[in-house]
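Purpose: get a first structural picture of the assembly so the mutagenesis plan has something to point at.
Setup: four entries, given in the order below. No constraints added.
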Amino acid sequence: MRDKGHASRGRIVEAATDLFYRRGYHTTSFADVAQASGIPKGNFYYYFKSKDDLLVAVIAERLEQIAGDLGRWNAEIPEPRARLVQFAETLQRNAEAISHWGCPAGSLNGELSKTQPDHRLRARRMLDVYREWSEGQIRALGRDDAHELAVHLLCMLQGASLLGGIYGDFTLITAETRQIRAWIDRL
Amino acid sequence: MRDKGHASRGRIVEAATDLFYRRGYHTTSFADVAQASGIPKGNFYYYFKSKDDLLVAVIAERLEQIAGDLGRWNAEIPEPRARLVQFAETLQRNAEAISHWGCPAGSLNGELSKTQPDHRLRARRMLDVYREWSEGQIRALGRDDAHELAVHLLCMLQGASLLGGIYGDFTLITAETRQIRAWIDRL
DNA sequence: GTCTATATGTAGATAGAC
DNA sequence: GTCTATCTACATATAGAC
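Result (structure tokens, whole complex):
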């Protein structure tokens, strides 16, 4: 049923995903999304009953992308430690974007947690998925404090993404990736 | 000259500082600040020529508070490592607020970096001050990679504050404080 | 399904009485 | 210095032609 027709809907979600990331949710207007997608804003309400509803679609799209990444890593990387390294190096692989706009999941959560309590749980799911997966890998290394360590890993990655975006600093991302990699090696 | 008269100005800045922290800059309106401070919004333009101008005053107030903290720690704590612990435990001391709204400096920077390029430098100063001070303490411990380590410390603290706020989780703050304290002990 | 025109609310900002 | 009334712009959202 999904992806049946509705090409316009897909283009709206794609443009909104990009703009909510680069400019933030509150500061992105339907007019902005309309211009970026080439679809008049009046049309939006045929696909989404509100801006909140568009946000739900954007988060759903991000969640699918995250699940796809994790599934691929599970399939292609046998060792738990190597999987964690792959996760941590997402920072380096996406350094260009992160050094401009931070982490898509982290920055959106930060924004929504202050103002959209009704979306907190939904947005948080993006971080939960990463945390649960990391916790599984760390537990496979024989650590019984896997939960606390997984949270710490996520904190380090989110902190690096936040400061990388704030400072617009590529080298900060590289240095942090090294620090976090060393932490994983010590696990 | 400062604090001469202008009691209203001080109340506006105080209310705005609080609201920009708890609700964010963009989602706080002058009407909100007016209600919180008890001063009609029309009056705001006698003291501030724009909302941006009010933001400048809020950041200046926060900077003074940060400088005051660091000065007090310098005066009261002789050992560099103990100073760093004092800094890290700010997380725990402010856990109640942080578990609701994150770090005042970090969340404001995260918000402004996406949308207010003209304020990036000014807001960043709050983080720079912490980083420079940390770097000095770490260098005093004999580490010549003090810059990179200070940035890493800031990343961990910011990541913990961000996730603490997102999850509204007091125990996360406590666990992260422990992790970061252990990191300082290993320096 | 797609688009234009428009309604409605609220934001930041101003004018001017007191 | 303080406050009320108001302007203007733009946000989300709707109505309805095609």
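The mean pLDDT of chain A is 96.
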